[in-house]
Amino acid sequence: MPDFMNMALREAEQASARGEVPVGAVLVAAGNRVIAQVGNRVEEWRDPTAHAEMLAIREGAKATGLGRLTDCDLYVTLEPCAMCAAAISFARLRRVYYAAYDPKGGGVDHGARFFTQPTCHHAPEVVSGMEEHKAAQLLKEFFSARR
Amino acid sequence: MPDFMNMALREAEQASARGEVPVGAVLVAAGNRVIAQVGNRVEEWRDPTAHAEMLAIREGAKATGLGRLTDCDLYVTLEPCAMCAAAISFARLRRVYYAAYDPKGGGVDHGARFFTQPTCHHAPEVVSGMEEHKAAQLLKEFFSARR
Question: For residue B48, which of A16, A50, A94, A121 sits 20 to 30 Å off, Cα-Cα?
Answer without folding.
Answer: A16
